[in-house]
Write the C-alpha cells for this entry.
Amino acid sequence: MSHNEQAVESHGHVHRDDVGAKMGMWLFLFTELLLFGGMFLIYAVYRFQYPEQFHFAGMELNTTIGTINTIILLTSSLTVALSITALQKGNKFLSIIMLTITIGFALFFMVNKYFEWSAKVSHGIYPGSEEMLNKQNGEILFFGLYYVMTGLHGLHVLIGIVLLTFILVMIIKDKIISTDLVKLENSGLYWHLVDLIWIFLFPLFYLIQ
Amino acid sequence: MANGTIAANLKTFYEEGTTKSNKGIWSWLLSTDHKRIGLMYLGAIAIFFSVAAILGVLMRLELIAPGETIMEAQTYNSIFTLHGVIMIFLFIIPGLPAVFGNFFLPLQIGAMDVAFPRLNLLSFWIYIVGAILVLVSLILPGGPIDTGWTFYIPYSVRSGTNISLAIFAAFVLGFSSILTGLNFVTTIHRMRAPGMGWFKMPLFVWATYATAWIQIIATPVIGITILLVILERMFGVGIFDPALGGDPILFQHLFWIYSHPAVYIMILPAMGVVSEIIPTFARRTIFGYRAIAMSSLAIAFVGYLVWAHHMFTSGMSDTARIIFSLLTFIVALPSGVKVFNWVATMYKGSIDPKPPFLWVMSFIVLFSIGGLTGLVLGALATDIHLHDTYFVVAHFHYVMFGGTGTIFFAALYYWFPKMFGRMYNIKVANWGVGLFFVAFNLLYFPKFIMGYLGMPRRYYDYLQEFSSWHLISTVGSWVMLIALILVIGNIVYSIFKGEKCSSNPWGGVTLEWHTQSPPPLLNFQEIPTVKHEPYDFSQLEEMKNES
Amino acid sequence: MDNQEHKNEHEHHITPYSTYVYVWLGLIALTSITVTIAGISLGDYTLAVALLIAAVKSYLVINIFMHIKYEELIFKVFLILSGLTLLVIFALTFFDFTYR
C-alpha cells in the first residue's frame, strides 16, 4: 500500500473511535447547555425583579398544550432510546419503527407549537405589537423570553427532525448497523438534550399559576 | 523516544495531501490535514492583522493633534470599533489556537491528525464566512458599526449602522471557535501517543487544553447574548432594552461572562508557547512542570469568576463589586506561578539568545507591566478613577499585544523551520525584536500617563495638555509599523527564499522535533513511543543518532 | 491506546427495553405530579418544588436515556464541571441583583 492510500484511509473510516465521537458529541451538548443556560439566567434575573408580573403573564399561557407537549417529548425520548437498543440487538425493523415514531412525535410537537403561537398572535400578544407595548415591563419581558426561549427550542426540534430523518435513511440503507451505530447514539443524545431543556422550560413558563 | 522517529526523506505534507490531487488550490481549500489548515489560518490571520494594524495607525494619525486631522468623528468611531472587532475576533482569539494549536498539537502528542479532521476543515470555513460577514458589514448602506467592540446596550439597539450583521458575524466566529475547542479536547483525550501520560504532555498542549475548555464553556454564552440583541433589533423583542423594561447591566454581565474568559483564550496558549521556548533555549528542563500545567487549569477556572471587574462603575451592587474585586486578585496567583517558574528555568541554564528567546524576553517584560497595571485596575478604589481612560487602553494593549501578540511572533519564529523547512535571516530577526520592543513602549507607555492624567478612551478630540503625549504615541505607531514590516517581511521572504535547514535547528526535544521538517502528511514515519519527560534534554544525544 | 482497550470500547452496554419503559413511566408520573402541585398554592415553595422535580427528571434522562451511567468516568467529570460552572455563573450574577 502506498503512503498516500494509507493517508486517505486514516482520514476516512479505518481509524474509528466511538468513545472519541461520543466525547465530541457531549462537548457539543455542553455548549447547548450553556447557550440555554444564558437564557435561563436572564429569565431568573427578570423573574426575581418582577415576580408578580411574571406570575400574571404566565397565567395567559395554555397549561394543557404545555403538558401535552411535555408528554410528547418524553415519549419521543423513550422511542429514540428504544430504537438504539433495538439496533444494538440487531432488530433493524423495530429500530426503524421506533425512529419513525420519534420523528412523528417531533412533528406533532411542532404542530402543537404552531397552534399555541398563532393563538397568542391572534390575541395580539407578539413582540412589538400595540397590545404588548401597553403591558407592564415585567410582562413584556416575560413574553419576550417566552417567544425567544420556546422559539429557539422549537428550532432545535426542527434540526432534530432533519437529523433523525438522515439517520433513519442511513439505517434503512445499512449505513448504520448494529456494530457501528455511534451516529445513531449521538443523534439520540442530541434528541434527549432537546427533551432535557423542555423539562425546565415547561414548569418555568407554563406552570406559574 | 528512540522508536520509529526517523528523519528519513518521506514526502512532506506540501507534496502529499488528503485530496485526490496533490496540487492546486483545491488541495489546500479542501484539505483535512491539520497542518495545511493551520497554514491557511495563518494566511487569513496575517491579512486581518495587517488590516487592523493599519486601522490602528490611522487612528493614531488622527490623534496626532487636537481637533480634526484626517477624518470625521463618525469615521473615527467606526475605525476604533473595527480595529477592536477585527483584532479581537479575527486575530487574537483564534490566533494561537487555530494556527499553532492546529499545526503543533497533533505533532506534540504524537498523533497523525486531530480527532475530527473534517470538522476541523469546517471550522476553518466557518471562520472565513464570519470574517467575510464582518467585511460585508463595512460596505453595506447602513455604514460600518460604531458601538465599540463591546456592543453595549442600549446604543447597539438604537444605532442605525450594520450592527445586526456584524454581531451575527461574531456569532458565526464563535461557532468556529467552539468547534475547534471540542476538537482539541477530544484529540488530547483520545489521541496521545503510547507512553504519553497526562504529565508527559508538553506544556503548550496543557495550555491548549485549558483554552479549549474555555472555548467550549464560555463561547455559547456570548452566542446567545448577541443573538438576543439581533432579535431585539429585528423584532422589538423586549430583552435588554430599558425602554421595554430590560436591564442593560444584565447585558454587560452576559457579555463579560464570555469576554473575560476570552482574554484567557488569548493569553493561555501564549503562556504555553513561552513554556516551550524557554527550556529549549536555556537547555534546561522546565522548572515546576506540574505547577505550570495546573496553573493553566487554575487560570481557566478562576477566569470564570472575575468577569464583573469590567463593570465596577456600571451601577451594580456594592457586594458584587467587592466580591469580584477580591476574586480578580486571585487570578494573579496562577499567573505569578508561571512567571516565577519561567525565570527559575533560566537560572543557571546555558542560554542561547536566538530570536524566539528574545521575543519571549520582551514578552516577560511587557506582560509583567500589563499584568501589574491590571492589579491597579482590579482594585475597586483605583478603578473608579481610571475606568474608561487611556490607562485601560494601555493595560490591555500591554497584555494582549505585548502578551499574546508578541508570543504570536515568538511562536512563528520558533516553529518556522519546522513549518517550512527553511530558516529566516537571524540578524534581521534580532533587529526586528529590538525595534518592536522600543516601538511598543513608545506607542503604549504614554497612554498609561495620559490615562492617569484623565484622558478618556475612545474620544475623538482632546485637550491641549495631552498633545505632547499623543504626539509621542503617534510617532511610536510609525516605528511600530516599520518594526512589523521588518518582522513579517523577514518571514514572508524566507518562506520562499530562506536557506534550507535541518529538522531540529534549535535542539528542541518535544515530539515535533523528532520528525522531519516539514513533516510528512501523517506527521511521523510511525507513531512514536514516549519514554522521556517532555523537557528531558539528555535525549538530544539519542536524537542525533536517530538521524 | 493499546489493542485491549480498543476491544472493550467496542462492546456496548445494551440497556434492556424494560429499563427505558420504567424510566419513561417515572417521568410521566413526575410530570403529572408537577402539574398537580402547580394547581395548589405552596407560596414561596412553588418554584423550588417545580425545579426540584425538573432536576429529578433531568437526572433520570441524563443517567439512563443519555447513558451517562455506563460511560467512562471522565464523561461524568465533564458533566459535573460544566453544570458547576453554570451554577457558579448564576450565583455570582445574583450577588449583583440580590444586593442592589
Observations:
- Chain C touches chain A through 48 residues (CB under 8 Å).
